[in-house]
Each structure stands twice: as structure tokens, then as C-alpha cells.
């Protein structure tokens, strides 16, 4: 297995060392990604713990619809889908496109964690996660108002979605990726989940 070791030089540039060659090369921050399925990107001097706390709180505070006392799990289900596909190396860079792999796994996870419920179409969380601060849309021709999310709207208007750089870096580290996946599963994939406050998370 090839392990990258990287040192942050500034916001845009990172010096990456390949342990096999001990060669150091500068790369653009936004282009940091594994080149092959057996590569793991590890930032050696990075505050993973602080980053994890920040995004754990952001995910805990997701804006989710409620109906008859039950929480709609569409957003965390899509986040978990993306994390699992990163884990499986299906998603290898921070350009997330709505593929059949994403749609099928999303549906499976939704049925697994909220059996008996009608699955919210993936188009809704794919578009509306944008409002939670860490999920961003790359528009084809200028930002559009999302009146009704649909496959046609996505195909006609969205090139891809991408995560915050810091969240993407966090998810490249297997240990911290699994920590965040565990949080999503235990705390957000339950339709009867409680509402969290920052004080609740501070003691965890």
C-alpha cells in the first residue's frame, strides 16, 4: 500500500511526499485525491480531531424535515452513502456526480435504517444539502433557484457537487472517516432521533 505524507504549506499548496520515493511535489489543495484505489491520503500535520468535532456538530445540526414526530433521514442517508462509497473507493475525488451506484446504495441504506417508510427521492437531499453549509453545487450555467428538485433539474443545471475542502480531507483518513460514519449511523439514521444542542456534543 502506498501512503502519502503531506505538509500544509499554505491554503492552496501542500507538499506531498511519497514514502516509496521520498520525493516531494507541490499540488493544488483542490486536487488532493488518491490516484489509485490502494493509495491513502494522510495529512501529517493536520487537526483531524478539531475538524471532526466541527463536522460532527454540523451534521448533528442538519436541517431535516419532521412529519408526525419522525425525522426524515434523507440527508444523513445521502451523506452516509457518500462516505461508504469513498470507503469503497468508488468516489475518488471531490466531484460527486449522481450515479446509479449512489442512487442504489442510498435506497438500500434508507430501507435498512427506516424500514417501512417511503424513501425520499435522492434528488431532494442531493440539492438541498447545499443549505447546510458544507455541501456545494457546481452549476453548469450560473446558480439556479431550486423550486422542485428532480432528475431533470439536476441533469439540466448541475455539473457536480463537492464538499468543503476540510471535510474532504477528513474523509480521506480511514480512522476519522469511520468515526464520522459511526456518528451518522448511531445519531442521525434514526427517524426517532432527538434534537442535539452544542452542549450535548461537548460531553461526547
Detailed description of the structure:
The protein has 204 residues and is α+β, with helices and mostly antiparallel strands. It folds into two domains: 1-46, no CATH class; 48-202, no CATH class. Helices cover 40% and strands 19% of the residues. The protein has helices at 48-60, 74-87, 100-113, 123-128, 151-157, 165-172, 174-188, 198-202, and strands at residues 2-8, 13-18, 23-28, 39-43, 66-67, 70-71, 135-139, 158-163. The strands form three sheets. Strands 3-2-1-4 form a four-stranded mixed sheet, with no helix packed on it. Strands 5-6 form a two-stranded antiparallel sheet. Mean pLDDT is 80; it is low at 1-38 and 195-204.
What is the element layout, followed by pairings?
Layout: E1 2-8, E2 13-18, E3 23-28, E4 39-43, H1 48-60, E5 66-67, E6 70-71, H2 74-87, H3 100-113, H4 123-128, E7 135-139, H5 151-157, E8 158-163, H6 165-172, H7 174-188, H8 198-202
Parallel strand pairs: 1-4
Antiparallel strand pairs: 1-2, 2-3, 5-6, 7-8
Helix pairs in contact: 1-7, 2-3, 2-7
- Average pLDDT for all residues: 80
Main beta-sheet annotation: 4 strands, mixed
Approximate strand percentage: 15-25%
Oligomer: single chain
Question: Which strand order does the major sheet show?
Answer: 3-2-1-4
Amino acid at each position: 500500500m502506498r501512503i502519502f505524507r503531506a505538509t500544509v504549506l499554505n491554503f492552496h499548496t501542500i507538499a506531498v511526499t511519497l514514502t516509496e520515493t521520498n520525493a516531494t511535489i507541490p499540488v493544488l489543495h483542490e486536487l488532493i485525491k488518491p490516484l489509485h484505489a490502494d493509495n491513502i491520503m494522510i495529512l501529517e500535520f493536520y487537526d483531524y480531531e478539531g475538524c471532526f468535532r466541527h463536522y460532527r456538530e454540523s451534521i448533528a445540526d442538519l436541517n431535516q424535515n419532521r412529519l408526525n414526530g419522525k425525522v426524515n433521514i434523507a440527508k444523513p442517508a445521502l451523506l452516509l452513502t457518500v462516505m461508504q462509497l469513498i470507503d469503497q473507493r468508488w468516489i475518488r475525488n471531490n466531484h460527486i456526480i449522481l450515479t446509479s451506484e449512489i442512487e442504489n446504495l442510498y435506497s438500500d441504506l434508507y430501507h435498512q435504517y427506516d424500514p417501512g417508510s417511503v424513501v425520499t427521492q435522492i434528488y431532494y437531499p442531493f440539492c438541498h444539502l447545499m443549505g447546510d453549509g458544507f455541501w456545494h453545487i457546481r452549476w453548469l450555467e450560473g446558480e439556479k433557484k431550486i423550486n422542485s428538485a428532480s432528475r431533470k433539474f439536476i441533469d439540466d443545471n448541475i455539473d457536480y457537487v463537492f464538499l468543503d475542502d476540510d471535510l474532504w480531507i477528513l474523509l480521506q483518513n480511514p480512522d476519522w472517516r469511520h468515526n464520522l460514519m459511526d456518528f451518522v449511523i448511531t445519531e442521525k439514521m434514526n427517524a426517532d432521533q432527538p434534537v442535539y444542542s452544542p452542549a450535548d456534543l461537548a460531553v461526547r
